[in-house]
Amino acid sequence: MNTTRREAMKFMASAASLGAAAPYLNAASASGGAGSGAQAPLDYTMQKLWHGVCYYPELWPVEDIERDIAEMKSLGINMIRIGEFTWSTLEPSEGKISTRFLREVMDKFHAAGIAVVFCTPTPTPPVWLTHGHPDRLFVNADGERLIHGARQHVSYEHPAVRKACFRIVEAIAKTLGDHPAIIAWQIDNELKCHVAEDFSPAAIAAWHKWLKKRYVTIERLNEDWNTHMWSTHYQSFEQVPAPLKTPFLHNASLSTAYRLFNRESIAEFSDMQCEIIRQYSNAPITHNTNPAFSVNHERLFKHLDFAAYDAYPSSKEWQALVFRSDMYRAAKPGRPFWLMETSVSHNGWLGNHSPMHPDGFLKAEAVLVYGLGAEGVNYWLWRQQRSGAEINHSAVMSSWFKPTTGYAQVKQVEAARKQLEPLMIASKPLVPEIAVTWSDHARAMIETEPMDKEPGFPETYGGVVQLWHGLLFEQGYHRDVRFEGASLEGLKLLITPAMPYVSEEFLQRVIEFVKAGGTWLIAPGTGTRTREHTVPTDSGMGILDAVAGVQTEYVFPLTATGIKGSVGDKTLNFTGWCSAVTTTGPDTKVLGTLNSPLVPGTAFLTERILGKGKIVLLSAHPTGTDGKQFIQQLIQGYARELNITPFVASPGTVVCPRIDKQGKSLWVIINMDGVGGRVNIPSNTRDAITGQLIATTELTLGGYDWRVVSI
After folding, report:
1. Pairing mode of beta strands 337-342, 374-379
2. 175 touches 103 (CB < 8 A)
3. What does the pLDDT read at residue 353?
4. I need a labelling partner for 201 at 20 to 30 A (CA). Which of 3, 248, 394, 414 fits?
5. What HEC string does 340-354 produce?
6. Band of the pLDDT at 452, cuts 50, 70, 90?
């Protein structure tokens, strides 16, 4: 028996002794069907729904503030986000800091009953920090040193930069942390949205320290990375390069490790700001991000109090709001997330702008996000920028202070918010029974080693996760996107796509979940690499082989090979990498086989019984219309076995299930495509706002219309 299989069997034996996991906290809906799930922990109670704008008083005459406040009050705006770009205002020269101006601003807003989310201003360091100090600037992967301007142009690894950042954060927290207007803090803004890995001298020095901490000895690093390949063997940590340009490509282990280092380091930068703020303020702390940014999302939110994201979709891209809400809702269980930035009409910057929203879309967007678990919806921005790189972006008010095309849309949102608020306060999102795994480690690996794919298949890790999330959403299933390290409580079906490295810790939790009755669908691209981004030497999918009850015979790219597969009477085409397997025991059965003399007698779809549950391995991705239909049917089959019932709604219409304190179900229903739609509802359903009984079991909505119903 080889080493990996021996370790896997030992791991399985250990897992077998765990017994059943804790019972699911099911909170079945009153209809006894669609949307049943687990109730979120009642550890936080919303007091209101926040409706806000990003506000930059430092850019306009002081006398405009009173006019701004009056206009915001008339619109129902109840909070502002300020501060993220104010560093040069607060500290015009090094060490000369005054926060008096912002205290006076907040005094006025507090008197008017408008709350504040205060951002630390570290995205835009002033020129005095870098002028004459090129060593403090960010260096990109091409070795190009950036210059002062825009934002994120400094190296946050440089000691002088960090000192300056923490000095301004402490000055703000110390002098403003007790201000009664502040309801929350935001660390920086959109960390790593414009840049990725830092290759400055300071970053490389920090990289060497990180390597020493991670590997302890250079011998361990050499062994784990197999550095005799191409004679890259190192004699000290200081010799290990950052993966700048080289004649061909760097070792995959090195490239992935450098991404992991940078993302851990920027999370620590956020942690340190949190530590400073918490010395002076009890208000909760968040960060505004989105899945595309070059951060480790799970690590970033580890020490934050709640999650926040931004999204600027056109009316045709509204599903991004569903995906991000599902992802960041699950990031901090039991705590509402915020949509911290979105546009009232259209997104835009120099040289580009998106189409203007149709009438009613913004209202539908806000109701969708509130329904999926948001506490706040916030617009970027209040008044159109009169200068800079984003003068094409929409705002509530124009530069000349006239209502824009988005003004009336904000009014629609406020009317909806008032109706929603008591219902949202009295309920929480239902915890889904199906989730898709998000692994930041996997994302770093796939950025190093792009996936084999046919044209049109997602190019990024995030795209693949969204593909699987979309398959669930389109079929009407209520769903989560859960981080790799998240609890599996409440779930019945877990789908894990494109996770090259599967850790023992993750497997341990999944085995508990399966033994207690859950089903784990291992989706293509999973298990074929080690933690250090090398190829397993004892089995094709490492310890995953033994867990799935298979032996990997071949791993190869399927795209454009013409190799097909059979499941019953269905014939499928494939794309991407394939792990062709055979079974290793009677508890694993073959459901789908590969049809090629190149890989004789092998399977791409297997099912293993483990405890009360199942482990399903789909090791190649079916493609085309038939392939999509097959995957949908695969999901439906296992969902039915697990008594997970989808909502029945027309395309473009979304159901957001919630549960109130009495355990009763509440559905927030929104038409997002602007065409109108239909949703099947149980009999004896009432309109939650009017209390009237709905006389039909098929609810009809107009374009961008919304309803809340009590089941």
Report:
1. parallel
2. yes
3. 87
4. 248
5. EEECCCCCEECCEEC
6. confident
From residue 622, give the alpha-carbon distance in Å to each of 344, 358, 461, 605.
39, 36, 17, 11
Query: Which residue blocks in 426-538 are alpha helix, DSSP H?
Result: 440-448, 461-474, 504-515
pLDDT per residue as tens digits for the range 109-140? 999 999 999 999 999 999 999 999 999 999 99
Residue 702 in this model has a pLDDT that exceeds 60: yes
Q: CA-CA distance, 567 to 636, in Å (whole number)?
A: 16
Mark residue 346 as left, alpha or beta (left: phi above 0; alpha: psi -120 to 50; beta: remaining). beta
**How many angstroms separate the Cα of 443 from the Cα of each of 176, 422, 557?**
38, 39, 19
∠ at Cα 138 (134, 144), nearest 5°? 85
**Unique residue bearing structure tokens 């208000």:** 283
Instruction: Please count the residues of the chain.
Output: 711
Portion of the chain with pLDDT greater than 90, in percent? 93
Q: Alpha-carbon distance 48 to 78, whole Å?
A: 10
- Token pair 């678990």: residue: 373
- Write down all domains in the chain, each with its CATH number in brackets: 3-36+433-641 (3.40.50.880), 653-710 (2.60.40.1180)
pLDDT at 31 over 90: no
Check residue 417 and give left, alpha or beta (phi > 0: left; psi -120 to 50: alpha): alpha
State the Cα–Cα distance between residues 240 and 237, nearest whole angstrom.
5
Are 394 and 384 within 8 A, CB to CB? yes
According to DSSP, residue 392 is labeled T
pLDDT band at 608 (very low <50, low <70, confident <90, very high): very high
Burial (CB count <10 Å: 0-12, 13-18, 19+), residue 678: middle
Q: What is the pLDDT of residue 17?
A: 39
pLDDT tens across 639-697, in order?
999 999 999 999 999 999 999 989 999 999 999 999 999 999 999 999 999 999 999 99
Percentage, residues of the chain above pLDDT 70: 94
Of 195, 199, 219, 218, the closest CA to residue 207 belongs to 199
Instruction: Give CA angle at 525 (521, 530), nearest 5°.
Output: 105
Q: Which residues are catalytic?
A: 190, 341
Tell me which residue of 642, 582, 635, 578 sits closest to 608, measured CA to CA.
582
Residue 41 has pLDDT above 70, yes or no: no
* CB-CB contact of 483 with 499 (8 Å): no
